[in-house]
Design a protein that fits this description.
heterodimer; A: 250 residues; alpha/beta; globular; B: mainly alpha; MetI-like fold; 12 helices
């Protein structure tokens, strides 16, 4: 008898972490961690405060290399443009990697420049000169995060004048303007009210069609609402907590 | 007396002491400026600046001012601008290197060297400037002698540590997250420095320039050994001797012939204060307007 439901097809692996060790200032934060993250899915990373969740995210875009007294061992392989790449290989350009792996921080971090310039900044860093293309992409991305109507008349105004929720959505627009393949989010809604947090959750669920999302979150309700899978960081090791095709139950 | 009431007493003591310190500072500023105004205000007139020369002719450099402070004011202004002009690019680059690129050991050594340079008495810097002038005169060009150029170079050495240190501290004090923001978007370290870090550190860096301006305007020991003279007129080139207000004040206060001449010394001090206020105001406007320019770019 043929089953009425479609057979479960696991998503292809987007990120493969093998034997990851990480220490900060001599203190071991991650130890012998090996895990795979599926493509086009939202994976929530949970665990106690200070357990190394943010550090783990930074191993996926090599941002930890900018911090002093950090050391890492192991291998991180990411499927970029359909080709698996060891992101710590000498021939892997770190700037190019960070343009494919976007990141949003816990606190909104607008730069002291206009709203327009903030959102267009990654394109300008990448050397984009076509002003029409930049304008078009800024508008598209701001519409995508639902901020266009609020800011279209004051794009030249300071980004610091936006509310906390608006700033965080602007930062998400900034992270998405380069159309990254992976988006890392470090508790993006923790400083926001419920309405602003829900707006961000809706965005993430929409974005996973085109992007692989890893989100650090302390809010179990949020994890339940949006995550396709959950990994828990405990005692320096990451482990799958429970996985389902759409939502998780904790 | 229990611990809580003892704590309250200590807190009250600290608050009283803080108020007292503020009041002392305010009183000292009022006393110094008030005394200067009391002794020097009566000499404040166009004649103090231009003497018997027609002011317009003096301003257009058509006629030399012999009995006024105009040449000393121009000399001071040029000296400050030149010295700060040499020191800003070198000091800023040094501060950026220490904050962003220097490794542990190198950083420690350079920090120590800049602290030593900051602690050097200005007469030692003056002596260095004088020795440098002699060296250049002997080995590079006979044209080089104590002059405006050599004074400004020696003064630049004096103020270099202020600019290096304030640039370094302004960059190092930026929160780690600000530092990572640009890098996480794919910025190179240089892009991050120019587009993200320096615009945010600008206000702190301008504070160092303000300190440097004040230090340049008041210093007498360095310029005494490197080119200032009592009477030279408005300097015609960088290789000319020049006059400067702090030296004039020192010269008059040590060798005045009568009370009238001493009063012109107080007048010169007031003019020096006004020049400093003017330069501070310019630096302050730059400090306020630069971040606005960054904001307004689209």
């Amino acid at each position: 008898m043929q089953s009425s439901t479609q057979p479960f097809v696991p998503s292809p692996v987007k990120i493969r972490v093998s034997n990851l060790f990480f220490s900060y200032n001599g203190r071991e934060v991650l130890r012998d961690t090996s895990l795979e993250f599926p493509e086009h899915a939202i994976t929530a990373i949970v665990g106690p405060s200070g357990s190394g969740k943010s550090t783990f995210l930074m191993t996926l875009n090599r941002l930890w290399e900018e911090l002093p007294q950090c050391a890492m061992g192991g291998r991180v392989e990411i499927m970029l443009n359909g080709i698996p790449q060891n992101i710590y290989a000498p021939d892997c350009g770190v700037e190019a990697l960070r343009r494919r792996v976007g990141m949003v921080f816990q606190m909104p971090n607008p730069l002291p420049m206009s709203i327009f310039k903030n959102v267009a900044f990654p394109l300008q860093l990448a050397g984009e000169k076509d002003k029409n293309m930049i304008h078009r992409r800024v508008e598209e991305t701001l519409r995508d995060v639902g901020l266009w109507d609020d800011v279209k008349d004051r794009l030249a105004g300071s980004a610091l004048s936006l509310s906390g929720g608006q700033q965080q959505r602007m930062c998400m627009a900034r992270a998405m303007i380069l159309r990254p393949e992976i988006l890392l989010l470090d508790e993006p809604a923790s400083a926001l009210d419920q309405k602003a947090a829900e707006a961000i959750e809706h965005l993430l669920v929409r974005w996973k069609q085109n992007c692989t999302i890893l989100i650090v979150s302390h809010y179990l309700d949020q994890v339940k609402r949006i995550a396709d899978s959950v990994v828990e960081l405990h005692d320096g090791r990451l482990r799958n907590r429970q996985v389902s095709t759409s939502r998780v139950s904790l | 007396m229990n611990g809580a009431s003892m704590g309250r007493l200590v807190e009250r003591g600290i608050i009283t002491f803080s108020w007292l310190a503020g009041a002392i500072l305010f009183t000292v500023i009022c006393a110094v400026t008030g005394y200067l105004c009391f002794r020097g205000l009566k000499t404040m007139s166009p004649a103090l600046i231009f003497g018997s020369t027609d002011p317009m002719s003096a301003l257009l450099l058509r006629q030399r001012v012999f009995d006024g402070l105009f040449p000393a004011m121009v000399g001071t202004l040029l000296l400050v601008l030149l010295s700060v002009g040499w020191a800003i690019p070198i000091g800023t680059a040094g501060g950026i290197y220490l904050a962003e690129y220097a490794g542990g050991g190198t950083k420690k050594i350079f920090n120590l060297l800049f602290d030593l340079l900051a602690g050097l008495p200005s007469i030692v810097i003056g002596l260095f400037g004088f020795s440098l002038t002699l060296f250049l005169n002997r080995h590079v060009s006979k044209e080089l002698h104590p002059c405006l150029l050599m004074s400004s170079i020696a003064l630049a050495f004096l103020i270099l540590p202020y600019i290096v240190r304030t640039t370094q501290i302004a960059l190092e004090n930026l929160p780690v997250q600000n530092r990572l923001t640009g890098l996480a978007m794919g910025a190179t370290r240089l892009q991050n420095l120019f587009h993200v870090l320096l615009p945010q550190a600008l206000a702190g860096m301008v504070s160092g320039v303000l300190l440097a301006i004040g230090r340049c305007a008041e210093d007498t020991a360095v310029i005494m050994l490197t080119g200032v003279v009592a009477s030279a007129g408005v300097p015609r080139s960088l290789l000319s001797h020049y006059e400067a207000l702090p030296f004039y004040i020192f010269y008059i206060s040590s060798q005045y012939a009568d009370q009238q001449e001493l009063a012109t010394g107080y007048g010169a001090a007031i003019l020096l204060l006004f020049i400093c206020l003017f330069l501070f105001a310019v630096a302050f406007v730059i400090k306020k307007s630069l971040p606005c320019q960054v904001f307004s770019q689209r």
